[in-house]
Amino acid sequence: MPSDAPAWSLHSQLTKDTIDIGDLPLCRVLVVKDAHYPWLLLVPRRPEAVEIIDLDEVEQAQLMTEISRTARALKDVTHCDKLNIAALGNAVPQLHVHLIARRTSDIAWPRPVWGVAPPLAHDAEEVQKFISALRRKIWLG
To answer: Where in this chain does the record put each HIT domain (predicted)?
Structure first.
């Protein structure tokens, strides 16, 4: 990357709403601070990326690999009924991909999760167990 290229940083709203659990080759992996759902974000560490098409083709392929790897881990850890995977970006323009483990018993089922209920704070011990399990499954063993 040229020295005059803009530096990547996480959008302030994503910083506020998530817990950083580490980096894959392309993406920062974050847990959304809402215990209603096991909910992750993947944020490609590329300055000014708003849309998937803002990534070059190699980065797009890497993003799909990281989505698949993380989604498999999320499904394995949560034993969810359905995975919701989406890149919306209507409220936060920085490119990010939502991976949400859904259960037929969750508060929003079968509707989308947005706006159904205010975020529920995580139990500190439970979220650390969740993060540890994910980190083992995704990349750290």
So the answer is: 40-109
Across 49-129, the runs of DSSP E, i.e. the strands, are 82-86, 97-102
Q: Chunked in runs of 10, what are the mean pLDDT values of the chain (141 residues)?
A: 76 97 96 98 97 98 97 98 96 97 97 94 97 89 45
Residue with tokens 């995975």: 83
- What Å distances lie between residue 45 and 7, 59, 95, CA to CA? 9, 10, 9
How many Å apart are CA 10 and CA 8, to the nearest integer? 7
Burial of 18 (0-12, 13-18, 19+ CB in 10 A): buried
User: With a threshold of 0.90, does the pTM exceed it?
Assistant: yes
Domain range summary for the chain, segments of one domain joined by +? 12-140
CA distances from 79 to 58, 75, 100 (A): 31, 5, 12
What is the C-alpha to C-alpha distance for residues 35 and 44, in angstroms, rounded to an integer? 24
